[in-house]
Amino acid sequence: MRRDMRIRKSILLERTAVIILVTSWIFSGFPQIFNFPPKVEKAFAATAFDAVSESNAGTTGASVTFSWTHSPVSTPRGVLIFVFNRNDPSGDDTSGVTYGGVNVPLVTGGVARDTTASTEGGSTQAYFLGSGIPTGNQTVQVSEGGTFTNAYAIAITVTAAADTTYAGVVLEQENQALTEQAVDDGSPGTNSVRFAGVLHGGNDDGPAGSNSTSIGNIDFGAFNDSAYRETTAGSGSRVVGV
To answer: Taking the model in full, what pTM does it have?
Structure first.
């Protein structure tokens, strides 16, 4: 099952993925003499990848609430956090995510699930904060709400001239033979950047697609989790992932 939204795997490996597009805009409102009521003009500002950090390395994930330090390179205007948890196909075992003490909301429609009753099953969740972001090194905390089983997370920051938002979400759920997936920003005249978080039910993370770059991975031996970014940001319908 694939679910596509605009707002903005048989010997087949079992995988779930959340693919998300991050974009930015600047709002400026002004009254126009010949246009009533006044309307809001919208100008877009280019968005670019800044930095990435992982919650843990090695071959063991977290089993309780966990945290780590993320170090942006520049001033972040967007924070995207992928959370992966085994044996949690509902995605309900994460009670919240914070960045520098600021709540990072769960992306609307941003939970992909594999309901397989084994260690291959689990969920991939996306959390995003596009305004009010603390600068400098910050603590990322992922809080347990149920039971964490080899939980793992990746934090990504992006830069832009203004606040950011997500403009599209694509989910790959259950048994999927994943390929790079397209997310469309509507060609606003400037670049957006796309990311994918993938939970794998196999013993390799899958090579990044030809338009993508791997930015984080944990290998548990029999399965692993990973994230990818669009190698070159752009506008329109563009692909990212495995």
So the answer is: 0.84
